[in-house]
Amino acid sequence: MVTIKEITDKKTWEEFILHTYSGSYPFFQSWSWGKVQKKMGFSIFRLGLLENNQLVGITQITEITAKRGHYLHLRHGPVLIDFKKYFDPLLTHIIDLTKKQKASFIRISPQITEAKVPVSFFQKRGFRSAPIHNMDAEMCLLLDITKSEDELLKAMRKSHRYLIKKAKTYDIEVITSNNPKDSEEFINLYKSFSSQKKFVAHTGIREEIEVLGKADEALFFFARYEGKIISGVLIDFIGSMAIYHHAASDLQYKHIPANYLLLWEAIREAKRRGKTYFNLFGVAPEGAKNHPWSGFTLFKTGFGGERTEYIHAMDLPLSPLYWKTYMIDLITKVKKGY
Question: Which of 49, 116, 246, 276 has its CA 20 to 30 A from that of 183?
C-alpha cells in the first residue's frame, strides 16, 4: 500500500535523490531550491511516497499564482524509484491538491528520457505538451569531471583551449564570492547584458545566492579587469553536480575571453569539491542554427560533455482557465523565436 505524507527533513530528502539519480541531479527538486522559492514568496509542498514505510518517491511542488495563470509546478519532478509503478497514486493525490488550491492545471518536467518513460504514458493520463520552451534544461550538456584537468582540456574544442590560455595573458583577477551583497554587482551586469542581448532576465538570483550561498552551495565567479567587473557567472553545487546557472558579460569587453577563463575556473572548483558532473545546462536542439540559444550553445559545447535530452514539460488541464495560460505561454514562445 502506498501512502503520501509531507517530508520535513532535508537529509532524508537529499539522500533519496542521491540514491535515485546518477548523472544529472534534478536541481529544481533540491531542498535548497525549495527554500529559494519560499523566499520568493511561493508556496511549497514537499511530498513523500511510502510503500511499507519505505520511501519510494518524492516531489517538490511550487504553487504558481501569476497573471498568466494559477497552477502547481513539479519542476524536474517527480522523483520516483519506479516511475510507471508509483506515478498514478501520486498523480491522484496531486489532482486533489490542485483542486483544493483552486489551481487550473498541473505542470511537470521530470528528468526522464523518452526511452525510459514515453510521452504516450502521460498522454494516456490526460497530459499534453506544455506550450513553453526548454526552460528546465530538458536539453543539457553533462560534463564528466572525474577526469583529470589535462584530459578535460584535451577534450575541449581547440579554440576553447586557446582562448582559456589567451585569457590568462590579460591581467584578469578571478574573484569568487557567496556574499549576498555581491548579488547586486552581478544583477546589474546581468540586466545590462539581457537588455543588449534582448532576452528576459531571470528573477530570483538574489534569493538564490542568499539561500544556496549561505549553505555553501553556490558561488559567484567574477572577472575583474583594470579595476572593473567585466564578466560573471553563478554556479550552483548541488548533490553530486555543479550547475552553470547564470552568466553575464560587459559587451564592451567582448574581445577579452574572460568567460572562457571563468567557466574553466568553475569546473576546477567543482572538481575540488568532489563533484562528478558539471552541468552546462540548457542548450539549443542540434542543428537549430537560428535558435535564440545558438550562440551560447556553441560556447558551451566547446567545453565538451554529453548532450542529454529529457522529455518536454507536460501539462494536465483541470479547468477551462488553463487555456488562458496556454495561449499566453504559446505566444511568448513564438515571439521569442523558440
Answer: 276
Q: How many domains does the chain contain in total?
A: 2
Q: 210 and 119 in one domain? A: no
Whether the CA torsion 267, 268, 272, 276 is positive or negative: it is positive
> What are 1's three cell numbers?
500500500
10 Å Cβ neighbour count for 240? 17
Cell of 33: 531550491
Question: pTM, whole model, 2 decimals?
Answer: 0.93
The helix or strand, by DSSP H or E, that contains position 214, with its residue range, turns out to be: helix 205-214
* Host domain of residue 120: 2-133+312-336
Q: What is the per-residue pLDDT across 147-169, written as a single tens digit (0 to 9) for each? A: 999 999 999 999 999 999 999 99
pLDDT at 325 (0 to 100): 94
Over residues 107-121, the pLDDT tens digits come to: 999 999 999 999 999
199 and 251 in a single domain? The answer is yes
Nearest to 241 by CA among 308, 142, 112: 142
